[in-house]
Write a structure and sequence with these properties.
The structure is a homodimer. Helices cover 19% and strands 40% of the residues of chain A. Chain A is of the alpha+beta class.
Chain lengths: 78, 78
């Protein structure tokens, strides 16, 4: 059984680096990773906020938010 | 062949959460993950700094630093 992991980003350079090095590095046997571009999928900003995401890039694993470096505040994407 | 990944932490609660959810989530087929407690291994702070680490917890993958949330500034560990 895999655990849900969601990587929220906004297409910025910091986000892309984190996506390639961290999000894609997760063990596919244990994690079902979904990549969500909040710039294109603004309807999912509320979901990110509920998980505790304050800025992107961020990785939400099993409901816990982990901010990876800093690309943009979530507020800047609204 | 595996890529070197080093997770630097200082034993703080933020660090432990990141270790369990992110560092241990990396694909073992692709990454050789080393966990370094800078509080106990102060001799490796310079190595973390060279990789661009500013605070812990941080994950250095293939020489690139990714800060995961914020537990403590590296300066506080010296």
């Amino acid at each position: 059984m895999t655990t849900k992991a969601t990587f929220f980003h906004a297409g910025c350079p910091v986000c892309v680096a984190a996506e390639r090095s961290v999000a894609e590095a997760l063990d596919p046997k244990k994690y079902d990773v979904e990549i969500v571009h909040l710039g294109n999928q603004g309807g999912r900003i509320a979901e990110a906020e509920t998980a505790g995401v304050k800025s992107v890039p961020a990785l939400v694993i099993a409901g816990h938010a982990f901010h990876i470096n800093h690309g943009a505040d979530l507020a800047a994407l609204k």
